[in-house]
């Protein structure tokens, strides 16, 4: 498998995740929240925000995408899932948590509270899930095929 094929496959996986997670967010939140904040300047807030929903999505998605990318890759002499790729899946979870959280904190610090429509919130959630899926799928398949 070439890096070009891995990139194409990762973009396809990201696009699928964008559609699925944006749609899921749309239907799950449309009745309760016609508008929603992107971030909010309070650590103990009870009000959901776009990024408070995106962080757990990114963490769980990174574990699932790593595992699925590993299990669906066909190759000779594939390493075992435990412990190497299981730990890689956990590493991806920590990375996704940190990346999305840091972005949300910096967004809050420099932009502030912005209330967006439900459509915009769904699109942003889809973009976050697509970014996570692309990065994790690419990293997992590249490490399978090109790491010694």
Features:
single chain; two-stranded antiparallel sheet; 4 helices
Q: How is this structure best described in words?
A:
The chain is mainly alpha-helical and 148 residues long. It contains four helices and two strands, in the order αβααβα. The protein has a two-stranded antiparallel sheet. α1 runs antiparallel to α4, α2 runs antiparallel to α3 (81-110) and α3 (81-110) packs antiparallel against α4. The model has no long low-confidence stretch (mean pLDDT 94).
| Content-based structural category | mainly alpha
Number of helices: 4
Mean pLDDT level: 94
* Helix-strand topology string: HEHHEH
Unreliable residue stretches: none
The largest β sheet comes out as:
2 strands, antiparallel
- Percentage of residues in helical conformation: over 70%
* Topology, number of strands: 2
- Largest sheet, spatial ordering of strands: 1-2
Distance between the termini: 15 Å
Radius of gyration: 17 Å
Shape type: elongated
Question: Which strand-content bin applies to the residues?
Answer: under 5%
Strands, helices and their partners?
Blueprint: H1 3-29, E1 35-37, H2 50-72, H3 81-110, E2 115-117, H4 118-146
């Amino acid at each position: 498998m070439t890096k070009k094929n891995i990139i194409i496959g990762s973009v396809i996986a990201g696009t699928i995740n964008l559609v699925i997670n944006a749609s899921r967010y749309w239907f799950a939140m449309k009745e309760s929240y016609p508008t929603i904040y992107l971030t909010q300047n309070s650590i103990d807030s009870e009000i959901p925000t776009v990024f408070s929903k995106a962080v757990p999505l990114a963490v769980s998605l990174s574990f699932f995408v790593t595992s699925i990318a590993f299990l669906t890759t066909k190759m000779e002499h594939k390493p075992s899932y435990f412990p190497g790729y299981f730990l890689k899946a956990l590493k991806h979870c920590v990375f996704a948590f940190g990346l999305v959280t840091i972005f949300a904190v910096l967004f809050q610090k420099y932009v502030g509270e912005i209330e967006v429509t439900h459509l915009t919130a769904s699109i942003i959630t889809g973009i976050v899930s697509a970014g996570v899926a692309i990065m994790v799928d690419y990293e997992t398949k590249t490490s399978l095929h090109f790491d010694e």
